[in-house]
């Protein structure tokens, strides 16, 4: 029977010979914080906003709870509705460790705007601002106009 020291030595060798483990955060960082800004340039925020709206149209959700679950699954952070008025709603996005302070959250903002538009039936726009740096929190304001119904082309 092998001694404990020998077993530990074998385990260490197996670790050194095994393929490297993957790091999803590294992959995400490369795409979101290195590649996309380079490809999109000055138009990054606008393109990501409209991309978020496009994703929302492909993934329509019927409740705010579903939106919260989607944000969690997408690793976009925790989204909370702070307050809602007749023509606007205020949300708070507590970012994940994947989100960087200087990076735009316009993808998330566009997604939220389109989901609210689909649920309310009125043209909706959203804007965000950095609320807190530690922990990283963004405030997203979504506005709609009851006089401007969503156009549904069949």
UniProtKB/TrEMBL annotation:
Pfam families given in the database record: DUF2507
Source species, domain of life: Bacteria
Taxonomic source organism: Alteribacter keqinensis
InterPro entries xrefs: DUF2507 (IPR019642), NO_sig/Golgi_transp_ligand-bd (IPR024096)
Protein name in UniProt: DUF2507 domain-containing protein
Region annotation Disordered: where it falls in the sequence: 1-23
Basic and acidic residues compositional bias, start-end: 1-17
